[in-house]
Structures are given as C-alpha cells and as structure tokens.
Write a structure and sequence with these properties.
The chain is built from 9 helices and 10 strands. The protein is of the alpha+beta class. α6 runs antiparallel to α7, α6 packs parallel to α8 and α7 packs across α9.
Length: about 280
C-alpha cells in the first residue's frame, strides 16, 4: 500500500483530490486549459483497447491518469501513487465524474444562460464559475454539449471541474433538464461517400488499418481545445483522402466522426458542410 503523504507536504490540488476521494467522489487532475492529461504512449491511439473518446471505455488498466473521465478514481493509493505524481505537479485544476456519484451538472456559461436557468429550472445547489454557474442536481443522465446557447449537461461519461461545494440544497434532477437532451432525430446524416466508378485500389490490408485511422481521427477532433471548426474540416479531409476512394469507408464510420464533432459543440449543419467541402476539395 502506498504510504500516506504527510498533510503539510500535500500540494493544493492533490489535497482537494484526496478530500473528494475520501467522500466517494471520483477525481482526476486537469492540465492548463481545463483539459485532461493526454493518453500515455502505451494507451495512445487505442493500443490499450480503450476508445479514445471514452464514450465506450475499453478494458484499460493503465495506472496513469489516461482516458479523461474514465480515469477518475476514489482510490487514494492511485491518486497519490507514482503514476499520478507527475500529473499533480503539472495540474491546474481538479475534476470529477458527476455521473459516477449520481449527479448532473448544468453548466451555464454566461449571464444570459444563468438568467434562463433561474426562469426555467428548479432551484438547486449552485457553484459560481469564471463566467457563469454550475447547477448541480441529484440524479444522473446522458451528457450533452450546447443543448442551448451557453448550456452544457455534464453527468455520465464526462468530467466537470471541481469549483467547491457551492451553496443551496441539492434537488432531484427534474424532467426539464432531462428533456434538454431529448432531440428530434436530426435530418442531417453523414452523407454516403461517392466513389469513383469502379472504386480504387484498397490499401487496407486488414480492418484494423481503417479502424485505427477512424479512431485517430476521432481523437484528433476530441482533443481540439481551439479552432474546432478548422480541426473538423482538416480531419474530414484527411480521412476522405486516405479512405474515401476504395469503398471501405462507410456511413457508420462517417457517423462516428460526425458524433465526435458534435460532442465538441459543432452543429449537424456545420458537420455536413465540412464533409461536403472536404469531398469537393478532393474531387469526390
């Protein structure tokens, strides 16, 4: 068992993480920019078996803080262990997995979003953020970005930055929040890739080659912290250039890329436009 670190020597973020873990809150370190630490070389590009966007985590047992929210833990031996030590030295914040303890965070990113919540949602525990507020409800649900202007839902399979316990009494997750992620089926679907007559020569010796290419593209989009529009277009262009002419690329592969882009806040319309523009640029 890892020897406990004397309290006087525990850095601030690690002290917070240990306190949360002791209360049953799964935690992970964040680096500058409020983003998780990148996968280690052993886990890079799904080589460990886990999906890079961690929507469906694989059987990764890496001791490092890999795989974003899926690395969150309540085990103090992991939190204080040598595999996490470097991350804590570089950490800019502490995050937690709300869905892992049955919570949902309504992330209100600006004053107008806060005003909307006060008019629309039941009062609950609130935590001030840099630009708005986190409203925390008891109950878990699927997560979603940009459910309306300045409003994200953080619950299962995502992380939220820890900003303190907040004020007010936490109330049960209301239907008004659950309904925010219930959308009509999108009329925009990833378009079928048009192949040249007769197709092209397939360079994909095994399905693993194509799968790894799609997984790397998903990770590239998911890891974008700025210039998301440009990243999505460049990624679509790269995928179509490598896989779009031999007949191996399917609607299911395109749907995965669209989903990764929409999880970063891109609209279905922008995804469709970026895909079409990439095809046009390649003469497809």
């Amino acid at each position: 068992m890892t020897q406990p670190i004397p309290i006087r020597r525990v850095p601030g973020h690690l002290r917070t993480a240990l306190d949360l873990a002791a209360r049953g809150v799964p935690v992970l370190p964040l680096r500058a920019g409020k983003v998780p630490f990148a996968n280690c070389p052993a886990c890079l590009y799904t080589s460990c078996g886990g999906r890079p966007n961690m929507k469906t985590p694989g059987p990764c047992a890496c001791p490092r803080p890999c795989h974003a929210w899926a690395a969150a833990t309540t085990d103090p031996d992991v939190v204080t262990g040598p595999a996490w030590a470097r991350a804590w030295k570089q950490a800019a914040a502490v995050a937690y997995h709300p869905g892992g303890i049955g919570l949902t965070v309504v992330d209100l990113d600006h004053a107008d979003a806060v005003a909307w919540a006060r008019r629309t949602l039941p009062a609950t525990r609130t935590v001030p953020t840099t630009r708005g507020e986190h409203w925390i409800y008891q109950g878990a649900m699927p997560s979603a970005n940009a459910v309306r202007d300045g409003v994200d839902i953080k619950s299962t399979m995502v992380y939220a930055r820890w900003l303190g316990s907040g004020a007010g009494t936490m109330t049960t997750l209301p239907d008004a929040v659950r309904e925010l992620v219930v959308k009509e089926p999108s009329p925009v679907r990833p378009v079928t890739v048009s192949m040249p007559s007769g197709g092209g020569e397939c360079r994909h010796r095994t399905p693993v080659y194509l799968e790894r290419g799609i997984a790397m593209a998903e990770q590239r989009i998911t890891a974008a912290t700025s210039g998301v529009h440009a990243t999505v277009y460049r990624t679509f262009l790269a995928v179509l250039s490598a896989h779009g002419r031999c007949g191996c690329l399917t609607d299911a592969h395109a749907a995965r890329l669209f989903a990764a882009a929409q999880n970063k806040g891109e609209s279905p319309r922008h995804c469709a436009d970026a895909w079409t523009n990439a095809r046009t640029a390649l003469g497809m």
